[in-house]
Amino acid sequence: DFLKLRPHPHRRPWSEVALLLRRAMDENELRKVFAKFDTDSSGSIDESELQDAMRMLGIKVSDTSAKKCLKLVDTDSNGTIEWPEFKAFFGKVTDAEGIKCLLSSSNQRFFEYKQKVETDASFAKTFAIPPFGPKPKLLNTYHDDQIEEVVWISDTLLATGSLDGEVKIWDRTNLGGMIPKPIKSFKADSSLYTMAASSDGARVVTGLEDGKVVEWSVADGVATTMYRGHDAAVFSSKFRPDDACFASGNKVGRICQHDVNVAEPVLSWKAHEGIINSVDYEKSAGQLLCTASSDSTVKVSDTRLVGEDSTGMVVEIEDAAASEKVFRALWRNEREIVSCGDDYCTKRWDLRNLRDGPVCSYFGHVSPVRALELSPCGRFIVTGTTTGSVRLWLGGEQGPVSG
Predict the structure, then answer these.
(1) Residue 7 gets which letter from DSSP?
(2) What does each of the 403 residues of the chain score in pLDDT, given as a tens digit?
(3) What global pTM score does this model have?
(4) DSSP of 350-380, one letter per residue?
């Protein structure tokens, strides 16, 4: 633990370092600060040392944000900060506040919110608990493994997919009896991580642990197409509004777009540095694809611009979950995206003005927000957490209307 390290006899205490950083420093003073950061006296500052130093200066920091800071200072991209880089950087940034500005200022309150949740047992009472919603209708307990995905196929049909690869189709108008039964069931030969349904209700695609994407006929319950292109587990999928194509994202940050009639991808590109947890097409034209990743970013790619030398990225929301994982990002309309993540928060972003952070933040959950869905009109937002909490929000307001 860095806090337990004994101070070096020839190095200044952290209080003096902080004072030095509050005013312009000459080269000798700056070398002393560099030595303080370089705890193993290797002559360079690595990511762990930078993260510890930032924390000691009172800067809230995560692994992802420390990497972001290191990348900005490490001009030769060798993974460490040497003295010339340190000197050049602090020649422009001369105080601790300057370092904080490297991180998104809007993220600070999300760091603080999560910290309070984790350290103050009574903090949850700060937010009003909404009235409980109606008791849900029990489908059944026939799934033998964790349910990974639930999707609507039509107004009356829905599908549930479990980790063991099993998919069940249900008719909500025929759920009578003590133990309702599915109208159809089929099973993939690998673990299921994602599932998407076409808008016409004719087919579903499943993304599997072995990198396969399989299309199934809803009417027959049989596999109709095996799509190639992924070499890692597939974690997200979504049909384009016209059902002619679908996109899928995998464990290592790659996206494939398939024509439903062709097994090979028509587009494939590296979009993120981590798992792509969700993909979503903008509804009006279907050319813009919004993706959320464990690398803490939300990105928008124009599929018309994707090529060998281009990822097609037109918008990037850095640190969308305060440097934590982003689990889902969905289009609310052609200008706004709603995201949720590991920082216990849900946020609404206006793509025309990302500089000021989210236009609306939904506080109240006290665990990671893993699930997110919007009503077709975009007015309501539903969120679900790892501890089983579900809340219904008005899209333009911060308070929940039901939980």
Answers:
(1) P
(2) 333 333 344 444 444 444 444 444 567 777 887 888 889 999 999 988 888 877 766 665 666 667 777 877 888 989 999 999 888 876 655 555 555 554 444 566 676 777 777 777 777 667 666 666 666 665 555 788 888 998 999 989 999 999 999 999 999 888 766 667 889 999 999 999 999 999 999 999 999 999 999 999 999 999 999 999 999 999 999 999 999 999 999 999 999 999 999 999 999 999 999 999 999 999 988 899 999 999 999 999 999 999 988 999 999 998 888 768 999 999 999 999 999 999 999 999 999 998 888 999 999 888 999 999 998 887 899 999 988 888 889 876 655 555 5
(3) 0.73
(4) ETT--TT--SEEE---SS-EEEEEE-TTSSE
User: What 3-state class would DSSP assign to 194?
Assistant: strand
Closest listed residue to residue 227, CA positions, set 251, 242, 210? 210
Tokens of 10: 């020839």
Query: Starting from the edge strand earliest in sequence, which strands make up the sheet with 380-385, in order?
Result: 369-374, 380-385, 390-394, 400-402
The amino acid that residue 149 corresponds to is E
What's the CA dihedral at 217, 220, 221, 225 to 10 degrees?
-40
Residue 219 identity (one-letter amino acid): A
| Residue 215 in tokens | 């299309």
Instruction: Name the residue with tokens 């995206």.
Output: 337
Q: What is the DSSP string of 215-252?
A: EEETTT--EEEEE---SS-EEEEEE-TTSSEEEEEETT
What would the two tokens of residue 226 be?
């095996």
* ∠ Cα 284 287 292 (to 5°): 100
User: CB 130: neighbour CB atoms within 10 A?
Assistant: 15
Distance CA 152, CA 167 (A): 13
**183: nearest Cα among 191, 196, 194, 174:** 174
